[in-house]
Amino acid sequence: MAKNLSNTILMFINFIILCIFCPIYDMSFLAYFLCTDHNKVVGQNEAKETFHCNFSKYVNGVRLNYAVAALENTMDSITNICLDCGFESQRTFNRVFKDRYKITPREYRKRMEHNNRNGSLGVRR
After folding, report:
1. What is the pLDDT of residue 31?
2. d(Cα 119, Cα 79) in Å, to the nearest integer?
3. What is the pLDDT of residues 38-82, one digit of tens each?
4. Does an H or E element contain 41, and which?
5. 123 φ, ψ to 5°?
6. Which residues, at least 6 apart from 63, have a Cβ–Cβ distance to it below 8 Å?
7. How far apart (Å, rounded) are the C-alpha atoms in residues 120 and 66?
8. Rounded-to-integer distance, Cα 5 and Cα 66, Å
9. Phi/psi at 70 (nearest 5 deg)?
């Protein structure tokens, strides 16, 4: 069982790495990647146990990490950042971002710019 579990988790991680910036990431797409029926995706429970969250939250968390780096280090528009990170819409991006950081991406960028000018620390992650 341990060998199967680690293989499943490895496949899951490979899927995430390959598809992190694709907006299509539902269970049927993952099932196709894992070559199984979407009703029997073998990695869901194992991934939840390993990463302590469901598939969608894990993917969004990785995407948010990239988005924060882009907000801090580029002047790309927030719309471009959200689309580059694989979010289907800016509305979804704003909601997921605010759920995690308690401020909008625009507020985050303004706070980072203000803090950089004043030499203070940024928003806690």
Report:
1. 59
2. 27
3. 445 555 666 677 667 777 788 888 899 999 999 999 999 999 999
4. none
5. -70, 135
6. 20, 21, 85, 86, 87, 96
7. 22
8. 28
9. -70, -40
